[in-house]
Design brief:
- By secondary structure, the chain is α/β, with parallel strands linked by helices.
- Helix content is about 40%, strand content about 15%.
- The protein contains eleven helices and ten strands.
- It has helices at about 25-35, 45-55, 70-80, 100-110, 125-130, 150-155, 175-185, 210-215, 240-255, 260-270, 275-290, and strands at about 10-15, 35-40, 60-65, 85-90, 115-120, 140-145, 165-170, 190-195, 205-210, 225-230.
- The strands form two sheets. Strands 3-2-4-1-5 form a five-stranded parallel sheet, sandwiched between helices.
- Helix 6 links the parallel strand 6 (about 140-145) and strand 7 (about 165-170).
- The longest helix has 17 residues, at about 275-290.
Amino acid sequence: MDVVTGTTGTLVLAGTPIGDVADAPPRLAAELETADVVAAEDTRRLRRLTQALGIHTTGRVVSYFEGNESARTPELVEALMGGARVLLVTDAGMPSVSDPGYRLVAAAVEKDIKVTAVPGPSAVLTALALSALPVDRFCFEGFLPRKAGERLGKLREVADERRTMVFFEAPHRLDDTLAAMAEVFGADRRAAVCRELTKTYEEVKRGPLGDLAVWAAEGVRGEITVVVEGAAESGGEELDAEELVRRVQVREEAGERRKEAIAAVAAAAGLPKREVFDAVVAAKNAARTGPADGKGLS
């Protein structure tokens, strides 16, 4: 399709339904019908979406997914530089949120191309709202690593995070992930598993991580979003030396240098760095001179 040259075009990020097609934002249909180029994560799912909306795309449709994102981005930027209106849609929710889009947005901004959005459904915000956990402050962690060791390391990095956390997870890994969360965060930490949001078999399972891990061991199907309560704020006087040492260990195992780990633990606990340092040194000395009980720092 020919486009007007002499001026740059516009990149439009459009949210798509995460389940119920009736949740499609009203502007989505208009953008799909009029865009010069529609970049879709899955062209087959795009076709099903347009059929459900009762519309037809008139522009060129191209695939834009993780496997071709790097190669396709320059082509789309070229179209934008030529004046095209490029619409980016992913399988569900907003582009760039654990979906393709970031590279294209960054490349467009670098070329001073206008970027706008058609706001739409979000599994992150929907799960937060349904979780019954505090949502005044939250952070999105996306998918955890698939390998068990890397997954534990990532969870240890956020073990002291006080904001409510949101994760995506595949159903076949949910039981292992919840078990790992219970191990790192504590079995009593509150959480919510949101399954098949806005779909026919929508389910929100709330409870302590330990209980949810047992429930998930029986097998869970569907698209999953996990919301986990942040770490409780603790005054320095409530943390004994053993707990301070444990927190330093968690950060070191996640890759932090001991000096930075001590500083971070001290700041989170509201204590002088010297107090945490002394606890670490004492534990290290005890490990060298005392019985080998597996505790302390090496």
